[in-house]
Amino acid sequence: xxxxxxxxxxxxxxxxxxxxxxxxxxxxxxxxxxxxxxxxxxxxxxxxxxxxxxxxxxxxxxxxxxxxxxxxxxxxxxxxxxxxxxxxxxxxxxxxxxxxxxxxxxxxxxxxxxxxxxxxxxxxxxxxxxxxxxxxxxxxxxxxxxxxxxxxxxxxxxxxxxxxxxxxxxxxxxxxxxxxxxxxxxxxxxxxxxxxxxxxxxxxxxx
Length: 207
Known about the structure:
The chain is of the alpha+beta class. The protein folds into two domains: 3-65, no CATH class; 71-202, Sandwich (Jelly Rolls). It is 25% helix and 38% strand. The protein contains two helices and eleven strands, in the order ααβββββββββββ. The longest helix has 26 residues, at 7-32. The chain is globular, with a radius of gyration of 36 Å.
C-alpha cells in the first residue's frame, strides 16, 4: 500500500470529515432557533390591492362631495361646431380647433350645485388680432381681442403652436345643472384663430 494513503492517513481524513459534519449541524441548529417570518408575495398583493382600493374610494368621495369642482377645463376639440381640427404639440391635449370669421365651437359641462367662476380661453394666433366672443347658455359673458402669439423674430407660422390665456369674465354665477359654452370667432383676419380650451376657475369660498 502506498504510504501516502496508509491507515493513519485515512483515519485523519475521516476525523476531519466528521468534524466538518458536526460544524454544519451546529450551524443548522443555531438557525433553527431563530424564527424568521417572510411574508408571501400573495400577502403583499392583497395589501397593495387594499391600499389602492382605499385611495380610489377617497378620490371618488372627494370628487362626489364637491358638486362644483375648483377647475373645469373644456377642450375645444372635444366639442361640436364648424371649426377645423388641428394637431398642436403644445396644446393642452395636443389639439385645437381652427376658427375663421363667423365660425363657432360649443362645449358642455355639468355641475350639481350653484357656484361662481371666472372664465378664460387658451388660444393661439399667428397674425393680426381677432375678436372672439364667449356665450354661456345663449348669453354673452365676455369678449376677447387676441394677440399675435408668435415670438418676436420667429418664423411665420410658428405662432400657431405658441399659446396665450385670455381673460373673458371675472365672475359668472352658475346654477346647478348642464351648461353650454359657445366660442364664436366674431371678426378675424384671413388666418383666423385656434382655440385650445375654455377654462373656468371657481372663485367663491364655499366647499
